[in-house]
Protein: Biotin transport ATP-binding protein BioM
Organism: Pacificibacter marinus
Amino acid sequence: MVSKPDLIKFGGGPRKTELLISINAALYKNMINETQNQVTFALQNVCLTQDNKVILRDVTVRENARRIGIVGRNGSGKTTLARVLSGLVAVTSGHVEIGGIDPAKNRKAAINTVGILFQNPDHQIIFPTVEEEIAFGLLQQGHSKKDAADLVRKTLVDFDRAHWAKAAVHQLSQGQKQLVCLMSILAMRPKIVILDEPFSGLDLPTKMQLARAFTKIDSAIIHISHDPEHLKSYDRVLWIDEGALRMQGSAEAVLPAFIGEMERIGEADDLAQFTD
Ligand SMILES: Nc1ncnc2c1ncn2[C@@H]1O[C@H](COP(=O)(O)OP(=O)(O)OP(=O)(O)O)[C@@H](O)[C@H]1O
């Protein structure tokens, strides 16, 4: 369990659905701000073992792009990699650098460098009202109460949600809570935003609305997903398989290879197997 101060505010369906998501991906790509920053990160021989289980296996990778996707099956290690990149988890061996820092060793710099949007907003939100939730990260960054309040207001206005300031978070829908988490992260102006399965559990209209909110992200983006549809428009994609880097390259190169392998596995019945 990650403590709140460490929870840096960063975190073959029906054809019609696929079509809508594709349209949305195209819309998203066109709306992306061309001045967006790039993510630079490098992992050198990164291994991570937790509770005697090897989760990341000798991952060596270097990337420098505006938007990087990370794809992989359930349990392949994507979320763990996101935690490593944000500095929430220290590696067992190897070296991690993102945005010019080692995020686990330099926590203060990490708060200003990387924001992470988690899969489940209920794991991220702890304050009763929207404005308190957004203010928290800003206060952690060292802003005065007044500056934090101004930045909260500005962020809400940027998202056309000024009327949400006093709203009780527990009364919001999952999609609305996810948007609160996103606003909390962006208010802090991180250089890099990590999105960890941000559409998980959301219905299609909510996904589309959240995807539009992502277009307001000027920071570089690392987007983690098991669904290749979400990463089609990304500059670079890493495929993580059983804790190791299986492939890296353009979305056009990696995603078809990933889909082919997923279909091959889907034809078989590996759900029958137990893993260690
Ligand atoms: N603290 C831990 N101790 C032991 N095993 C863990 C721990 N955290 C994660 N794991 C295991 O490590 C593997 C990778 O988990 P992780 O959550 O990083 O995968 P993921 O690709 O994000 O999966 P999903 O898509 O299902 O969210 C899984 O088998 C998980 O059960």
Remarks:
- Residues 4-268 form a domain with the Rossmann fold fold (CATH 3.40.50.300).
